[in-house]
Amino acid sequence: MYNKKVMDIFLHPKNVGEIKGTKAVGTVGNQTCGDIMKIYLDINKNDVIVDAKFKTFGCAAAIVSSSVATEMIKGKTVQEALALDNQTIIDYLGGLPSQKIHCSVLAKEAIEDAINHYRKYQAKVEKKNKK
Ligand code: FES
User: Fold this and answer.
1) 39 with 113: CB under 8 angstroms?
2) For the segment 52-100, what is each residue's pLDDT rounded down to a tens digit?
3) Segment (H or E) for 4
4) Residue 27 DSSP code
């Protein structure tokens, strides 16, 4: 079902875990299967993602795409991370079975959610500092 590259990454995924204390945490659920994906980002004051980790109850495709997505956004700005296209992840993997494409979208959506939380937190801090 999965190609060799996907299987290799599945057996040795990168960035599994969490980042303690960060406000940039995103959680999404997959409506098709009910699985959950959580992404943690460490973003510095220049809006650069210095670290990214994930935890998921998802399948192999979800684990592999999250491993690749977190690797791709490390060292990128928040804006660049938001521009990450799901097809880029799939192409990098050399394709996924069509019934597993919905799993690969989880990482991108969780990254967006984490960035949203980060921005909301930043806005709150700025507002507080202005008082
Ligand atoms: Fe749920 Fe793949 S089947 S994430």
Assistant:
1) yes
2) 999 998 899 999 999 999 999 999 999 999 999 999 999 999 999 999 9
3) helix 4-11
4) E
Which one, of 84, 115, 102, lies nearest residue 34 by Cα?
102
Ordered by where they begin, the domains of the chain are 4-120 (3.90.1010.10)
Asked whether 61 lines ligand 1 (CB < 6 A), one says: yes
Positions annotated as catalytic residues are 33, 103
Ligand 1, atom nearest to 56 Cα = 4
Structure tokens at 96: 């996924």
CB distance 30 to ligand 1 below 6 Å: yes
> With a threshold of 0.90, does the pTM exceed it?
yes
58 alpha carbon – ligand 1 mean position (Å)? 5
Q: Give the ligand 1 atom nearest the CA of 34.
A: 1
* 97 alpha carbon – ligand 1 mean position (Å): 12
Handedness of CA 56, 62, 67, 69 (dihedral sign): negative
pLDDT in tens, 36-49: 999 999 999 999 99
